[in-house]
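job 3f2a | input accepted
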Amino acid sequence: MGVPPADSYSPSEHVEWITSDLVCTYEPLTVGGVLGPTTHWPHVFAVMKALAGRFGADGVRLVVAFD
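job 3f2a | predicted structure (67 res):
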């Protein structure tokens, strides 16, 4: 929570700062980090590709809910 100090802000690197008693961390996200081979997403996409191959791409949808 809070804006990082202006002198240490860089959108391409890990930054930590303290606001009151809270340690804040900014870490940029990359497509590879979120959807890359070390995540579970390649399995999801493989299943979607198999379903599209069998039933057609127009019939395959991914619906996601976050709680």
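job 3f2a | The mean pLDDT is 81.
job 3f2a | closed
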